[in-house]
Design a protein that fits this description.
With about 350 residues, the chain is of the alpha+beta class. It has 2 domains: about 50-190, no CATH class; about 215-340, Rieske [2Fe-2S] iron-sulphur domain (Rieske Iron-sulfur Protein, 3-layer Sandwich). It is about 30% helix and about 20% strand. The chain has 6 helices and 14 strands. It has helices at about 15-20, 25-35, 50-80, 100-125, 140-160, 165-190, and strands at about 5, 10-15, 35-40, 130-135, 215, 230-235, 250-255, 275-280, 290, 295-300, 305-310, 315, 330-335, 335-340. It has a 4-stranded antiparallel β-sheet, with no helix packed on it. It has a 4-stranded antiparallel β-sheet with strand order 9-10-11-12, with no helix packed on it. It has a two-stranded antiparallel sheet with strand order 1-2. Helix 2 (about 25-35) packs across helix 5 (about 140-160), helix 3 (about 50-80) packs antiparallel against helix 4 and helix 3 (about 50-80) packs parallel to helix 6 (about 165-190). The N and C termini lie far apart (about 75 Å). FE2/S2 (inorganic) cluster binds next to loops.
């Protein structure tokens, strides 16, 4: 028969005797058997159901409800109830940029509310307790294991789950909704296709027929601006065009004698000795802007992809596998001076590859 020594009584306790104890008695006896002495233990609310206890419960339940609402809002936003490309006043063409922060904020709020609620539950409703413990070696015998189980049960009873149905419900709601979040993210990502909403933002830039090319300060770009072999970063001259992340375009003036071997159906995209390519690297989206004018090589500094401008920005070295998209150029006269404009948008999507390219 396994026994354990109860320091408070000084007597050995059998497994049968231990099994007769209430969870709280077992917890205290088990703690003492392990050399843990509870020197102070007090219920926060010795009389159950007082106004103060109910107020504490309601406050914690409110925190859980906020967590529940935040998790549900995350799911609703993720599923597209908030327009995927909604626009805020003054946001120009950056009409989708608040989507991800919104998801992050709601998920953070849901997690924070559950965490704060659990901490408040422990601080406000669990019994106050101070204990000191002796250290000892060796495995526990059966009696100690039973007493240890009593400790767990007693701790669970201290939570008051059975009689605190409001907290149980609200925590269950918040935890359940939060539990759905990874599922929704997994399944939703397979359902929702990027760029399929209004405007198809992943497939189009602000360029279009007649859109002027401008520098970052808004000045229009003229063919007279560049020396042979020179380059300039230009943008679409529309509202928000300079800030748009897929707008940066590299305008290149070839050196005398250099020609571009154009890809199919794009032979007339250049203008004179000028060609224009998207500056966004097709590997991982860095700006490819180191131009070696003698060889016509364009280098992306991030992972050393090289694009041969004389072969229509075809990748010739490094991890990029797709040519830089080419912008169809044209020129118009304004006040007796020539200025560049786009004949149309880029014919393909900008930047790194993703599935279902058109
Ligand atoms: S982003 Fe350009 S090489 Fe990787």
């Amino acid at each position: 028969m396994s026994t354990t020594h109860s320091p408070s009584s000084g007597e050995e306790m059998t497994a049968e005797e231990a099994a007769q104890l209430s969870p709280e008695e077992a917890m205290i006896a088990g703690a003492e058997a392990d050399g843990i002495y509870i020197v102070h233990r007090r219920e926060r609310f010795p009389i159950a159901g007082t106004k103060a206890e109910k107020r504490a419960e309601r406050t914690i339940a409110t925190v859980f409800v906020i967590g529940f609402l935040a998790a549900v809002a995350f799911i609703v936003v993720f599923c597209g109830a908030v327009p995927y490309e909604f626009k805020l006043p003054g946001a120009g063409n950056q009409n989708y940029r608040y989507f991800t922060p919104l998801l992050g904020g709601l998920l953070g709020l849901a997690l924070a509310c559950i965490g704060i609620g659990v901490v408040l539950w422990a601080k406000w409703l669990l019994p106050e307790e101070e204990a000191v413990q002796d250290r000892h070696d060796g495995a526990s015998d059966m009696t100690q294991q039973i007493l240890g189980a009593g400790t767990l049960v007693s701790g669970f009873e201290d939570l008051g789950i059975a009689r605190r149905s409001m907290l149980k419900t609200t925590l269950g709601l918040a935890g359940g909704a939060l539990g759905l979040v990874p599922l929704v993210a997994l399944v939703g990502a397979m359902i929702k296709k990027p760029g399929r909403g209004p405007g198809q933002s992943l497939f189009h830039t602000p360029y279009g027929p007649g859109v002027p090319l401008v520098y970052s300060d808004g000045r229009r770009v003229s063919p007279d601006d560049l020396q042979p072999g020179g380059i300039a970063t230009v943008f679409p001259g529309v509202e928000g065009g300079v800030k748009n992340s897929d707008s940066p375009t590299l305008l290149i003036r070839l050196r005398p004698g250099q020609t571009v071997k154009a890809r199919k159906n794009q032979a007339n995209f250049g203008w004179g000795e000028y060609v224009a390519f998207s500056k966004i690297c097709t590997h991982a989206g860095c700006p490819a802007s180191l131009y070696e004018q003698k060889t016509g090589r364009l280098l992306c500094p991030c992972h050393q992809s090289q694009f041969d401008v004389l072969q229509d920005a075809k990748p010739v070295f490094g991890p990029a596998t797709r040519s830089l998209p080419k912008l169809p150029l044209d020129v118009e006269m304004v006040d007796g001076r020539q200025y560049f404009k786009a004949r149309d948008d880029f014919p393909e999507a900008i930047g790194p590859s993703f599935w279902e390219r058109p």
